[in-house]
C-alpha cells in the first residue's frame, strides 16, 4: 500500500483549490469555512456511538453479571473518553491549536507517526469501517423484520413461529443507502445525524421504559440474576461461559466504537474556539450520554430478563406488547442506522474517490461534474464515478450481510478487532510522540501498560466472537430464512 494514497484523503469536501488568503468565506487551509459546533459534533458522536450496540447490552450483562458487567462498561467508557482527548489534540500538528490541519484519522497518523504505522492504521480503519457498515445492514434488517414479526405475534398469538426472511429488508435498506450515498460529503449530512441522534434516544428510552415496566410490574420476579451472570451447569457449560463472557466484552467494545471517525467529525468544527477544546467537550457530552443509556439499558434489561436475556432485547422478543410501541422502537432503530451507515461509509467513499482523482487526474468519468436540475431541490452536481462506485459498495456490503447475518458475534468481532488499534494504540502513540514524552517516565510507562492491557483484552474477546461465529456457521445456510 502506497502511503501517498492516503495523503489527500478528505471525506467532507472536495480537494481544495488555491484560494490564497481565503477571506471570510474560507478557513486558514483554503477550504470553505467550517460551521460545526459542539452541538453538531455531539450529535455526530451520539449517532456513531449509540447504535446497535445498546441492544445487546442486556445480553452482555447476563454473561458477566452484576459485578463485572457495570465495571466493564465504565472501564471502556473511561478508556474511550481518555484516548479521544489525546486524539483531539492531534487534529492539528505539531501544535494542537495553531498547527497544520489533518483531515482524517489516517492523515493524523501519517503526520505524527508516518511510515509503516500509517499504512497499518489506514488498513485497520478501513477494514473496521467496512465491517461496521455490514453490521449496520444486518441490524437494520433485523429491526425491520421485528416490526413484521411483532404484528404477526399480535395477530396470531405468541406461539406462532412467524418466520420472516431478513433478505428483502436488507435489499430495502441497501436501496435507501444507494440514494443517500450520492450526497457528496459529510458537511451535507449534519441534518441526518441530528435525526439519527433523536432516533437513538427514542428507541433506547423505549427499551429502557419497557424494562422498567416489566420489573415494576412484577414481570421480573421469576428471572434469575447473579453477581457472576449465567451459571455454569445451569444455564451454560464451563467452556460456553468463558466464550460468551469474552464475546460480551467484544460487544461492549463495539458499543463504544467511534474513534475511527473522531478526526473526521472534528474537521467539521469552526476554528474558534479551538477545535481540540470543542471536540473534548463534545466527546465528554457524547460519552457521558451514551454511558448513562448503556448502564441503564444493560442493568435494567438484565433485571427484567435475567440470565435468559435475548441477544437483542427489542428484536429477540423479550417484549411482545404493546406491539405498536415495539414497532415504533424498531422503526427508530432502522432510521437511526440509516444515518449511522452514512457516518461510517463516508470516509471509505472519500478515500477511494480522492485516490482515484489523483491516479486518473485526466479522466472525465472520474473527475467530471454534471449539473442536474431537480424540481423543488435545485441543482445537483452528479459525478458518474461517484454514482457507480458508491452504488457498488452498498450492494457488496448488503450481499455480505445476507451471507453472514449473525448479530452478536459480528458486533463482538468488529469491536474486538478495532478497539485496540484505533481507540487505544494509535492515540497513545501519537500523544507520546507529539508531546515528546521521555521514555520510561511515569506517564510513558502507565500509558504503555494501558495499551498492552487493552491489546490482551481485544485478542481474547476476538477469540470469543470467532468461536461464536464458527458455531453459527455450522448450522447456517446462506440466503435462507433463519428459523
Keywords:
about 475 residues, mainly alpha, two-stranded antiparallel sheet, 4 strands
Read across the widest sheet, the strand sequence of neighbours is 1-2
Distance between the termini: 43 Å
Total beta strands: 4
Succession of helices and strands: HHEEHHHHHHHHHEEHHH
Structural class: mainly alpha
By DSSP (H or I, 4+ residues per run), the number of helices equals 14
User: What is the beta-strand fraction?
Assistant: under 5%
C-alpha Rg (nearest Å): 23 Å
Describe the global form: globular
**Helix proportion of residues, in percent?**
55-70%
Low-confidence stretches are 1-22
On the 0 to 100 scale, the average pLDDT is 82
Biggest sheet layout: 2 strands, antiparallel
Walkthrough of the structure:
A hairpin with a 6-residue loop joins β1 (92-93) and β2. α1 (38-49) packs across α6 and α3 (105-112) packs antiparallel against α4. With 483 residues, this protein is mainly alpha-helical. It has a two-stranded antiparallel sheet. It is built from 14 helices and 4 strands.
Structure at a glance:
With 483 residues, the protein is mostly helical. Helix content is 64%, strand content 3%.
Q: How is the secondary structure organized here?
A:
Blueprint: H1 38-49, H2 57-88, E1 92-93, E2 100-101, H3 105-112, H4 115-156, H5 167-180, H6 190-216, H7 238-255, H8 262-266, H9 275-305, H10 323-359, H11 364-367, E3 370-374, E4 378-382, H12 384-403, H13 407-434, H14 442-474
Antiparallel strand pairs: 1-2, 3-4
Amino acid at each position: 500500500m502506497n502511503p501517498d494514497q492516503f495523503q489527500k484523503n478528505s471525506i467532507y469536501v472536495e480537494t481544495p483549490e488555491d484560494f490564497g488568503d481565503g477571506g471570510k468565506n474560507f478557513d486558514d487551509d483554503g477550504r470553505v469555512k467550517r460551521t460545526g459546533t459542539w452541538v453538531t459534533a455531539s450529535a455526530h458522536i451520539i449517532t456513531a456511538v449509540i447504535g446497535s450496540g445498546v441492544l445487546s447490552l442486556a445480553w452482555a450483562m447476563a454473561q458477566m453479571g452484576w459485578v463485572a458487567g457495570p465495571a466493564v462498561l465504565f472501564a471502556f467508557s473511561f478508556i474511550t473518553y481518555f484516548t479521544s482527548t489525546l486524539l483531539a489534540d492531534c487534529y492539528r500538528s505539531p501544535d494542537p491549536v495553531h498547527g497544520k490541519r489533518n483531515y482524517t484519522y489516517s492523515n493524523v497518523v501519517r503526520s505524527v507517526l508516518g511510515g509503516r504505522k500509517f499504512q497499518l492504521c489506514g488498513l485497520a480503519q478501513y477494514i473496521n469501517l467496512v465491517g461496521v457498515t455490514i453490521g449496520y445492514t444486518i441490524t437494520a434488517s433485523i429491526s425491520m423484520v421485528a416490526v413484521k414479526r411483532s404484528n404477526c405475534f399480535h395477530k396470531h398469538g405468541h406461539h406462532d413461529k412467524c418466520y420472516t426472511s431478513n433478505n428483502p429488508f436488507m435489499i430495502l435498506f441497501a436501496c435507501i443507502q444507494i440514494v443517500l450515498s450520492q450526497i457528496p460529503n459529510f458537511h451535507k449530512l449534519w441534518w441526518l445525524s441530528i435525526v439519527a441522534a433523536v432516533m437513538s434516544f427514542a428507541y433506547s428510552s423505549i427499551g429502557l421504559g419497557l424494562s422498567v415496566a416489566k420489573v415494576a410490574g412484577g414481570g421480573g420476579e421469576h428471572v434469575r440474576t447473579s453477581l457472576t451472570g449465567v451459571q455454569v451447569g445451569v444455564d451454560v457449560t464451563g467452556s460456553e461461559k468463558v466464550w460468551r463472557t469474552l464475546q460480551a466484552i467484544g460487544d461492549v467494545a463495539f458499543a463504544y466504537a467511534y474513534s475511527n471517525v473522531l478526526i473526521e467529525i472534528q474537521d467539521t468544527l469552526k476554528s474558534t474556539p479551538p477545535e481540540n477544546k470543542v471536540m473534548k467537550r463534545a466527546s465528554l457530552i457524547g460519552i457521558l450520554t451514551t454511558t448513562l443509556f448503556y448502564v441503564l439499558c444493560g442493568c435494567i434489561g438484565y433485571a427484567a430478563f435475567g440470565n435468559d436475556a435475548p441477544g437483542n432485547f427489542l428484536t429477540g422478543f423479550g417484549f411482545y406488547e404493546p406491539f405498536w410501541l415495539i414497532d415504533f422502537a424498531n422503526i427508530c432503530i432502522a432510521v437511526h442506522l440509516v444515518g449511522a451507515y452514512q457516518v461510517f461509509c463516508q470516509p471509505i467513499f472519500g478515500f477511494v474517490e480522492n485516490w482515484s482523482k489523483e491516479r486518473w487526474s485526466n479522466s472525465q468519468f472520474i473527475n467530471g461534474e454534471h449539473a442536474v436540475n431537480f424540481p423543488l431541490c435545485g441543482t445537483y452536481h452528479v459525478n458518474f464515478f461517484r454514482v457507480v462506485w458508491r452504488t457498488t459498495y452498498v450492494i457488496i456490503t448488503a450481499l455480505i450481510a445476507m451471507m453472514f447475518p449473525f448479530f452478536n458475534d459480528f458486533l463482538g468481532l468488529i469491536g474486538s478487532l478495532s478497539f485496540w488499534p484505533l481507540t487505544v494504540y494509535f492515540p497513545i502513540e501519537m500523544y507520546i510522540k507529539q508531546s515528546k514524552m521521555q521514555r520510561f517516565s511515569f506517564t510513558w510507562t502507565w500509558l504503555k501498560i494501558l495499551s498492552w492491557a487493552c491489546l490482551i483484552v481485544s485478542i481474547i474477546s476476538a477469540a470469543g466472537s470467532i468461536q461464536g461465529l464458527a458455531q453459527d456457521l455450522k448450522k447456517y445456510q446462506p440466503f435462507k430464512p433463519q428459523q
